[in-house]
Amino acid sequence: MEKNELLEKALVPEADAPLEAEKHRSKFSSLVSAAGQKTQRLVSKAAKAADQNEDGKLDLGDAMTIMTSAGSAAKRFMVSAGELASETGRQIEFKSLRPLFPAEICLDGGGLPRFIRIVDRDKKFAENELCAGSVGFRSSHGKTEMVNLFRDSVQEMGLRFYPDADEEFYFVDPSDPKFYLALEKYFDYLKIAQVNELQKIAQELGAKHFQVTFKEEQSSLLKEKARAQGKLTKSSGAEVEHDRRQKQYAITEIVAKMDFPGHAPVEPQLRYLRNDQSIQTLISLRMNAQSPLLHQTLMLKMSNSSGLKESEAARIDAILKGLKCAGNVTVVSEVQNESRRYLEYDIEF
Predict the structure, then answer these.
(1) In Å, how far from its chain's centre is CA 323?
(2) How many CA atoms, within 13 angstroms, populate the side-chain half-sphere of residue 231?
(3) Cα–Cα distances in angstroms (integers) from residue 324 to residues 317, 318, 319, 320, in the given order
(4) Which residues contact 341 (CB under 8 A, 6 or more apart)?
(5) Is 26 exposed, middle or buried (0-12, 13-18, 19+ CB in 10 A)?
């Protein structure tokens, strides 16, 4: 074949070339068409979602609807967040104020502690809705928790106070959980109460005479000279000094004395002295008709009838010191003094 024929053949496509080209174009068109339909569906779906006012057009109204919807959602979120923050703040405030409500106090079961404080209801409790209906609040002092009662609520709680509810600190009466004694007058009141009860005991047991003498014990340190015993290197007759503690009564005072005509005994009901074994024995002997008692002298330790112990007094002193309410005399020292006080009870039938 000549060169020109070869060149001409190369330049002119074969007969089936147009068919192959058409196939490729058809396949490409199908792909484009499918892609277009898919894209159209996506666009239509997006448009429908965007067409918020359903008028078939995407316009400013749709944009405003979308913005309004988004704004409402944001607003709802902000309201919820605000409410959560507000509630959290209220919980924090409630824990800080620690209000006390009547339902939390069971008087019959001894719900109140032995040591309490009475305060006026100040503004932060009176005007706070979280404290509506509260009768006081709790406060912590180191490891000790104290109950503070509002002065305007204590009468409604069925509590009684000596001398009244105008003092600040009170300790419970050892014979009545609803009766509180002013801390400063605690031991003075118990002294009077015990003397009165001894008088009542004498009267009901049919005594002809009784006398109560208050005594306060004082230990004195005496130095005495004594002849040394044993062998001494320098002098067999040397004298040495040694200490000896001697109990004395610094105060002796007759606090009650009375005569009666006498009568058959009636068993008395005890209150402050109900746990005193010597008083119980006295009553038992007097009530025994087979061997009636004629005379008895008892030495009653006053601290045995007091409900305030030294360990509790130490905690109270710590609270008072923290509140800067401590006086010149500590509660611990008063308890220690009480342990040296006696009532001498002399009774004749």
Answers:
(1) 16
(2) 1
(3) 10, 10, 9, 6
(4) 191, 214, 215, 216, 217, 301, 302, 303
(5) exposed
* 72 and 65 Cβ atoms separated by less than 8 Å: no
d(CA 349, CA 339): 30
- Domain ranges within the chain, ordered by starting residue: 61-95, 99-158, 186-218+249-348
> Which range has the worst mean pLDDT, 55-64, 131-140, 153-162, 186-195?
55-64
SS3 state of residue 241: strand
Residue 197 one-letter amino acid: E
Check: pTM over 0.70? Answer yes or no. Answer: no
- Torsional sign, CA 289, 293, 298, 302: positive
Q: Which residues contact 326 (CB under 8 A, 6 or more apart)?
A: 317, 320
d(CA 155, CA 164): 11
List, as one string, the DSSP characters of 61-93.
HHHHHHHHHHHHHHHHHHHHHHHHHHHHHHHHH
